[in-house]
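Could you help me review a protein record that somebody else here produced? What it holds is a sequence and that sequence's fold in token form. I need someone to confirm that the token line plausibly describes how this chain folds. Take the sequence as given and treat only the tokens as open to question. This is what I was given:
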Amino acid sequence: MSATVEPKTANAPGAEPGRTPERSFRYGPLNYLRRYGAIGLVILNLTTFFIIWELFARSGAVNPLFLPKPSDVFTTMFAEFGPDGVLRENILISAQLFGSGMLAAAAVGIPIGLLMGASRVVDAIISPYVWAMASLPRVALMPLLILILGFTTTARFTLVFLSAVFPIIINCMAGVKTVDQSLVRAGQVFGANKAQLYRKVIFPFTLPFIISGLNQGMTRGLVGLVIAEIFGGNKGLGYLTKRAAEQYNSPLLYAVLLILVIFSLLFVQIVRWIEIKAAPWRNYQG
């Protein structure tokens, strides 16, 4: 006597027994609204903002020197993107300087921060210098860097690096110090050595702090970039803001500021993409 065992399949509530649940996207107004509603809201919000700005600027309530029309800003922006314009070359210069400065700050700041969080001795030695440099205004450093390094790319790179590295160090250090000790003890109970504890418990727990440090470092680094190019260079987006202000070219000044905003948002999205890839358990719908 033999018995045949049928494989059991889990069905969604309300689904017909034996049928595979449908996982594909269902077409319909509500489904489109759920999927693309946030994007549509952003587009509607920005469109409304620029329309109000255009109408207000056209009313003449404010001098066009202080508040140009957005149509003039976008016209100037597209014109300066052309072969004879000034934007394309200067955006590339600023992007290269900012990217190299951020990469160097991450490569130096993350290991030092993790080490400071793990070792009280290292923390006691380095911490006063880190906090002192983190609290020092960036603009105060540029004259010193010009005095030492001159009006060079190295001086501008150094200011971007110094602006970004200390928030990264502080966040990484805080992440290691706030690791849940019950997780560490659980790892020790299962026989994990120090290297395994650091790789499998401490580092994953610290990862959100590292991402937060990169975000803060990126914001500070962008400020450092603009300061460095205003005071210590003759190229880049920071230099363009100074030149546009000196020439009373407010559409170009607003266009550069708008590009800096886009620049910042682009790097924020890059960091978020890194976070999604490195820490998928932190993904959330926002």
About this structure: The radius of gyration is 26 Å.
